[in-house]
């Protein structure tokens, strides 16, 4: 008669339970971040397509476009506020609760934009209210990313952190895909003037439904095991942001430049520049809005695939090596972008965006795992959130505005190519300044090891 070992049965049950929870975490982070970035990118795409005409038109076409793109970047200045608040309360109180707050804040702002009267209806109050809602989006986005990253990476097996960590990263191309796809659909349902009158509003109003879905899914996800262990020991840091800047300021700045190199290039599409450049009636090339949005949507699929590839690859060869490959690929994409777009052919525009998206994915998928492995457990939420927010300001915040100003000043896209290539090289140099910490223990028992600076030339323990 066979005897069953109850210990083995319990271990098997725990393994299945952990695997099920890991799947819930992946689903929660992918869906939640996709909805957040759908909201965020929807504004950026609309800024290039309709906001300059509906909210800033009295300034004149060129100034209105610059201000419209500047309103996209303005929200980035408020991301650090969201990151500071989320980091402080996430390291001290609860990481899961922060994700709920950011999800609701972003959705409320997006839905309200969908019902906002235009300049013709209420005058100067219209752009002021639009900018205030964009600021709320920025605060929400600043708090979202760090929480989603730590929920996914701290739940992951050590040898799959890169792959698990790519789940919140996938939310970016998925958000772009949904935003561009909805705008493309509405440009068919409500073509021409109808799109300007009411068609653009529908994707914004849809956000209220998506928020309900995201909230339901995230509600069932357990707290990060690392934070749960810290909380059980009652070891939450009283002033995590102060500790971060007191002992890790240079690390924060260097790691922020890694993200800036990716973000500046990514905001050529997520920030709405390419959409406006290729459809502007007064520009060098004039394509139909619908096909351009479909090309952007299709390129987001490429970005998504290579984001996952980057996470998987970083588990195999290390975060640093995966990044170096990615920077080389991104440089190729930057070099081919405008020569292909300037042909005025939709097929070649898609090819340009697809090639660019390969590099964007390969310099983004491993970021969650790399950032999580840079900071000690007790200040990790603050570290990853604030570093990401600063990188976004240095990178994508005003990239569409800078690109527009360069084009207006020089009359050629070569100046934009030089700018994007420079940002890519900055990202590469910043990556080379960091030691690879792939697989470092993340739990609170290893704070001593985690506190050793990963910057080359600084092997000392960071000051607490």
Automatic annotation (TrEMBL):
UniProt xrefs under InterPro entries: MFS, MFS_dom, MFS_sugar_transport-like, MFS_trans_sf, Sugar_transporter_CS
Membrane topology recorded in Swiss-Prot or TrEMBL: Multi-pass membrane protein
Highest taxon listed in the record's lineage: Bacteria
Chain intervals for the UniProt region annotation (Disordered): 1-20, 444-464
Keywords: Cell membrane, Membrane, Transmembrane, Transmembrane helix, Transport
Major facilitator superfamily (MFS) profile domain boundaries: 25-439
Any one GO CC term of the record: plasma membrane
SUPFAM superfamilies in the record: MFS general substrate transporter
Gene3D superfamilies: MFS general substrate transporter like domains
Family matches, as Pfam families: MFS_1 (PF07690), Sugar_tr (PF00083)
Subcellular location: Cell membrane
Predominant localisation class: membrane
Transmembrane annotation, as ranges: 62-85, 97-116, 170-190, 202-221, 241-260, 292-313, 322-341, 347-365, 386-407, 413-434
PROSITE patterns linked: MFS, SUGAR_TRANSPORT_1
GO molecular function: transmembrane transporter activity
PANTHER family xrefs: SHIKIMATE TRANSPORTER
UniProt-recorded name of the protein: MHS family MFS transporter
């Amino acid at each position: 008669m066979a005897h069953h070992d109850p210990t083995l049965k319990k271990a098997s049950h725990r393994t299945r339970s952990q695997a099920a929870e890991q799947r819930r975490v992946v689903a929660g982070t992918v869906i939640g971040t996709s909805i957040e970035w759908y909201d965020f990118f929807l504004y950026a795409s609309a800024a290039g397509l309709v906001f300059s005409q509906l909210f800033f038109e009295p300034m004149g076409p060129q100034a209105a476009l610059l201000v419209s793109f500047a309103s996209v970047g303005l929200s980035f200045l408020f991301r650090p506020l969201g990151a500071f608040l989320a980091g402080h309360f996430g390291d001290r109180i609860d990481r899961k609760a922060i994700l709920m707050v950011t999800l609701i804040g972003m959705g409320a702002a997006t839905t309200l934009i969908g019902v906002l009267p235009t300049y013709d209806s209420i005058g100067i109050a219209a752009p002021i209210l639009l900018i205030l809602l964009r600021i709320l989006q920025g605060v929400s986005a600043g708090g979202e990313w760090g929480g989603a990253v730590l929920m996914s990476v701290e739940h992951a097996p050590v040898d799959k952190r890169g792959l698990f960590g790519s789940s919140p990263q996938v939310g970016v191309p998925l958000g772009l895909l949904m935003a561009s796809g909805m705008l493309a659909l509405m440009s068919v349902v409500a073509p021409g003037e109808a799109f300007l009158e009411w068609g653009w509003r529908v994707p914004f109003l849809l956000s209220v439904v998506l928020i309900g879905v995201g909230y339901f899914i995230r509600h069932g996800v357990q707290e990060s095991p690392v934070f749960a262990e810290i909380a059980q020991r009652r070891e939450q840091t009283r002033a995590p942001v102060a500790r971060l800047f007191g002992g890790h300021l240079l690390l924060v700045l260097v790691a922020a430049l890694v993200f800036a190199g990716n973000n500046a290039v990514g905001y050529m599409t997520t920030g709405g520049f390419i959409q406006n450049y290729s459809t502007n009636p007064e520009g060098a090339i004039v394509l139909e809005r619908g096909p351009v949005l479909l090309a952007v949507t299709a390129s987001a699929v490429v970005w998504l695939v290579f984001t996952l590839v980057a996470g998987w690859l970083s588990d195999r060869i290390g975060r640093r090596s995966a990044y170096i490959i990615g920077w080389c690929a991104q440089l190729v994409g930057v070099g081919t972008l405008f020569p292909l777009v300037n042909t005025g052919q939709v097929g070649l525009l898609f090819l340009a965006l697809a090639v660019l998206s390969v590099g964007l994915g390969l310099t983004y998928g491993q970021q969650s795992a790399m950032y999580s492995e840079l900071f000690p457990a007790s200040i990790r939420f603050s570290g990853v959130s604030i570093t990401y927010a600063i990188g976004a300001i240095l990178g994508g915040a005003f990239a569409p505005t800078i690109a527009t100003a360069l084009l207006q000043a020089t009359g050629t896209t070569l100046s934009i190519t030089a700018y994007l290539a420079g940002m890519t090289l900055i990202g590469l140099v910043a990556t080379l300044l960091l030691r690879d910490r792939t697989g470092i223990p993340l739990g609170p028992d290893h704070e001593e090891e985690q506190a050793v600076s990963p910057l080359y030339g600084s092997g000392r323990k960071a000051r607490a």
